[in-house]
Design a protein that fits this description.
alpha+beta; Aminopeptidase; 2 domains; 7-stranded mixed β-sheet; disordered N terminus
Length: 363
């Protein structure tokens, strides 16, 4: 296995240094992860089975929306658009949604998935690529609303809906990996999946973080409320900060919208994750670190290909890596309406974007 510099976590690859240390604990669950097998099984689905998979996805989104209408209304619109596409047999297409495949040996790749409260939608999707020939890790944050081909449904769908899996033949992480593989041309080797409560537990275990804002800010949906200036926040408020999609700031006594796009959230996520990664330097030994992190165990899942202890030792070895030592790719995207749902579509191919920072990948 190539040196594990960056792996998966809820809100970014850097925090892999926190979570891979958990792999040494017996309580960390694992699951099989074989995208190649899943791809073959998905390809073998009949048209009727694909129709049923889409109806099943629509059913569970309906169920979620009925329980938390405000939180899942957009997802419900998006899945209803999928149903309309399949019924009409006129799927949407994008010229930049598919990339030429790259040799599997070019990168060791890690997929980080942050699951929302439902467990069926990915709130954060991050792909880390470690060049086999050496060099800086390459990290790309994939917007949850990116509209990409779903090989299970044979239509385009939001990337985050792939976590629902495919008709019993591909798990959620496997289907997310297949969607990303089609878009990037890069095969995924490993994954880590973390839930929201796990992220909050990690922040608490590491003593909280500092968040600085110019104006008082709130988001009633995520539970965010921070005063102007710098605040030392616990796991709950930090999670509300990185999840916020409807922030408001107080300006001259009135609350005004502060944006809340995927890219707004991603910038905050990286800021917080580098703070967490930096906390690892405060621990004198791996044993001391794992003792602290034991309180947060049980909130994540890894693929069964990880070797016990190897990931933790590698994470500890590279605990001092900083923001300037990671290449962060920015995906060019543009707004699009899919039926009644707002989504993002690629504005350029992934391969040219990757080739700018890693010329050997040019195809």
């Amino acid at each position: 296995m190539a040196v594990v510099v960056v792996g998966g976590l809820l809100l970014g690859v850097v925090s892999f240094f926190v979570f891979t240390a958990w792999r040494g604990f017996e309580g960390i669950p694992t699951e099989g992860f074989d995208p190649a097998r899943a791809a073959a099984a998905v390809d073998a689905l009949t048209a009727a089975e694909r129709d049923e998979a889409l109806r099943a996805q629509l059913a569970w989104i309906d169920s979620l929306a009925a329980k938390e209408a405000e939180n899942y209304a957009e997802e419900q619109q998006a899945v209803e658009e999928l149903y309309d596409q399949l019924a009409a047999r006129k799927p949407f297409t994008s010229p930049y949604a598919v990339a030429p495949p790259l040799p599997d040996e070019m990168f060791e790749t890690y997929l980080a998935i942050g699951a929302d409260a439902s467990g069926f939608l990915a709130d954060t999707i991050i792909l880390a690529m470690i060049p086999a020939e050496g060099g800086a890790p390459i990290v790309v944050q994939v917007p949850r609303d990116l509209y990409l081909p779903n090989p299970c449904l044979t239509v385009y769908a939001r990337a985050n809906t792939a976590l629902g899996g495919c008709a019993g033949v591909a798990s959620g992480p496997e289907l997310v990996a297949l969607v990303l593989q089609g878009f990037t041309g890069v095969e995924v080797d490993h994954f880590a999946r973390v839930n929201f409560s796990g992220f909050a537990a990690v922040v608490n275990a590491l003593g909280g973080v500092e968040i600085c804002v110019d104006n008082e800010i709130r988001d009633d949906k995520s539970g965010l409320h921070l005063p102007a200036g710098c605040s030392h926040t616990d796991g709950e408020q930090t999670l509300a900060w990185v999840r916020s999609r409807n922030p408001q700031i107080l300006v001259d006594g009135s609350w005004e919208s502060a944006g809340g796009s995927d890219f707004w959230r991603q910038s905050h996520q990286l800021e917080i994750l580098f703070q967490l990664a930096g906390r690892l330097n405060d621990f004198g030994s791996l044993a001391n670190f794992t003792g602290v992190m034991e309180s947060a165990a049980g909130a994540m899942k890894l693929d069964s290909g990880w070797s016990i202890g190897d990931a933790a030792s590698m994470a500890w070895r590279f605990k001092g890596i900083g923001p300037d030592e990671i290449v962060k790719l920015t995906l060019p995207v543009k707004d699009h309406r899919a039926g009644g749902a707002a989504v993002l579509i690629p504005a350029a191919g992934f391969n040219p974007v990757l080739a700018k920072v890693y010329p050997a990948a040019a195809r």
